[in-house]
Amino acid sequence: MRRSPSNGRRSAPAETAARSRQARDLTEHAAGRGWPAQHDRAERLRPAVAADHNRRPEREKQYQQAQEQYERLARNAQGEIIKSAKLVATTLARFRTNRTVFEGPYDVVLVDEAGAATLPEVLLATGKADRAAVLLGDFMQLGPVIPPALGNNDRPDIKRWLHPDVFQHCGIHEPSDAQAHPSCVTLTEQHRFGPAVMRLANDLAYGGVLTGGPQVLRERPDNDPEIVLIDTDGLHELARAHLTGSRKGWWPAGSLIARALVELHREQGEEAGIVTPYGVQAEATLEALRDVEGAGRPLAEVGTAHRFQGREFDVVVFDTVEGSGDSRELWMALAHRQPGADAWHRNGVRLFNVAVTRTKARLYVVAGGARVRNAKPGTALARLAALIGSPGVRVLKAKHLIAPPKAPVPFRGEFGTALAEVLGRHVEVTDVHDETTFYDTFTEEILQARHSLWLWAPWVAKRLRSLLPALAAAADRGVRITVFIRDDTDQLQRKPASQALISDLRTVADAVIPMNVMHQKIAVFDERTVLLGSLNALSQSWTREVMVAMRGAYFARKLLAHEHAEIFARPPKCGRCRGAEIEIRRRKNGNWFWRCYATACKATHSGRSNAWTQDIRLRAGR
Fold it and tell me: What is the pTM of this model?
């Protein structure tokens, strides 16, 4: 903001300096009287310890008064400096809360990232301009963050003044609107990313008006793709989203792959940023990175697109959390701006656009290949799918990067081979086709466990009998064993043979907790080693499955927290029969609850079920 002439205001550099000196003198005076140096205290005050103790509150009060006066004078000095400045740079938040900044006046007001500000904030700032106000921003990037209570409010005044951003208020929704608006100047030449990302951005948001400078349009060699789709199909449980809302969640695949990509590019001296739509996925990835980062700064910045708007990185990993198969479509899979799209769908495109345009050299998109290929026409993922096979765009299958040790190595190319080597430093994969490779590893981990074993295994079968000796030996060493299995409403689990095996399991485990409709296949040893995949450890017999071993305490603890392990491992006694036959269930609204499944307790005189239940209180944000 450019300051207007003072119009008779007194310029006060001399007064400001005098006040600063006065504050410094007061502080030094207090320090000299109240806080002498350590060696002076030893010499001067040793004979008068009692007297000094009595005077200490008084001197502390003097020091506090001097400190408060210093801070008051410093604020006054700051105000005088701002008043005499020709140029003031501030945030909109500080503009409206700092009286000196707010008072102005200003000849010209410039508002950067205007599209990310609420309309009242922009009006407040531009209202202080005497001659001109200029708004700079991108209406196809993220708008202001509005609390849900206001964002979902249908009051006419809120819908008019808070819901639209400043561009929408001025009737600018599409690139053509901006070009046709008499007060809008469109800047169409970008100098950040190359032609492949520019094609994607034009298809997503800019309708083909975006162009590039000569330096970003240079041809790149075939082994240096600009956009790489990391296809997560074939990773089974690793690539299944754990829902934390109707259309959001987290998955291990993104954290694992992002960690390897960041390390690969750090070795090449390139800065990477990891962008994801959901805060919960950002948290999981941060925990995975902490397991491999050394001293100094973290391996990479991780955050949602809102955090990275306006930023740029050599390399960007866009973790969509979009799997394939029967997994649910999340926000990014549904994002579009076709006619009739509501704000949620359109904002998804804006988020997608922000994520992909943060890169300077290479963009990785982590998503299920089938989800991308079969994306609905007009969606953001369909725009990406249309570029596959074009210059600068390549697909790498994650299952080829994380291949079992004895499996034939597929052709990966120079780039894919380098990435696979980095992944191999942190990941071990076992192909369980012969029923022995995984269980050798699994049994060895049980024998080495020293503190705890957490196991999610939906079904039990005769495979359990071969594991019971190792589990019993671990329990004798003091290993706390907690097992989550499906409840007996499952037709396989309620068979007499399965119930007998569950009884045997209860003799060695500290806790065996039934869960209704459970599907996770996870083992966590000593809160450091995680085995995760599609294999059911207590029942697998002949099917071909994959399990991945990830080593790292941060990731293990994060996984346990997401599964509510500690809370779910301590079921209460039934409030009616005081029995211990308690299972975990989930309501349609997503809330978890305990339920007594003892037949004698839940059956009424008429034969109907009236089971005792109790809501499970999870920590905030869970």
Answer: 0.71
